[in-house]
Specification:
The protein is mostly beta strands. Helix content is 9%, strand content 30%. The protein contains three helices and ten strands; from the N terminus they run ββααβββββαβββ. Strands 1, 2, 3, 4, 5, 6, 7, 8, 9 and 10 form a ten-stranded antiparallel β-sheet that branches. The two termini are 32 Å apart. 44% of the residues are buried. The model has no long low-confidence stretch (mean pLDDT 88). It binds a DNA duplex through strand 5, strand 6 and helix 3.
Amino acid sequence: MVDGAGGSIGQRLGRDFFARDPDVVAYDLVGSIMSVRDADGLVAVRIVETEAYGGADDAASHAFAGPTDRCRVMFGPAGHLYVYRVYGVHWCVNVVTGIEASASAVLVRAATYLGPQTSNPVQPPRPSLRGPGNLTRALGVTGADNGSDCCSTTSRILFHAGSSDADRPEVSVSGRVGVSRNALRPSRYYATGHRDVSRFVAGRARGEGIAKTHPTA
DNA sequence: CCGCCGATCCTCT
DNA sequence: GAGGATCGGCGGG
């Protein structure tokens, strides 16, 4: 169990959590915890923004044209990471969702830095995790993590529930950021008003605040 | 606040 | 050969 400035970390999220509709998973991941282990130890962040992709009708999804070398992981079982390079510069990290071969995933777009905790009163500066490229850079997530399982106790990268329902923020929904096709699909979920939600690049996200309810509600 | 731009390189057509 | 599931910097209103 790991503690961070945002509270203790709850139970690890298992395969069943991810083997659901990507929009439901994307909604539920807002407010939950992602942890990354490396040689220096374990770092935890609280997710504040996600985006759902996939389904047969989603022209914005990398999987839309069928399995390719890049997106093949999306066609595999849920609970594995899909990491790809964007604009030749940044990495983006997704978790595969849904039933196998449904080729759906959730992009982790932004988070708040929680740990590591130190007894030193002088805390290290908190890196910005605002935006998918900033998040992967700060956490050291790269293409080497593509395809890796994130549901095993031995996994380098894991997801956890928040410690309590009180941690669950109000969630807003909007169209998606930075895509040209199917951009209006309301599949971007974010903690309402949170300072670490990504800024809108490549044009503002459209359809802001069109829903504030759980996708299945 | 808003929009444009370059960096940089891989993927798919 | 075109176009990115991005970002930081710059300039204008």
